[in-house]
Amino acid sequence: MLIFILVFITGIGAGFINVIAGGGSMLTLPLLISSGIDSTVANGSNRIAILAQNIFAIKGFKSKGYKIESFHILLGLSATIGALIGSNLAIDLNDEIFNKILAVLLVIFILYTLISPKYNNQKDLDLSKKKLVINTIVFFFIGIYGGFIQAGVGLIIMGSLSAINQLNIHKINSIKVVIVALYTLSALATFIYFGQISWLHGCILAAGNSIGGWVAGKYSSNIPEPIVKKAVLVITIGLAVKMWLN
Question: Is 93 left (phi over 0), alpha (psi -120 to 50) or beta?
Answer without folding.
Answer: beta
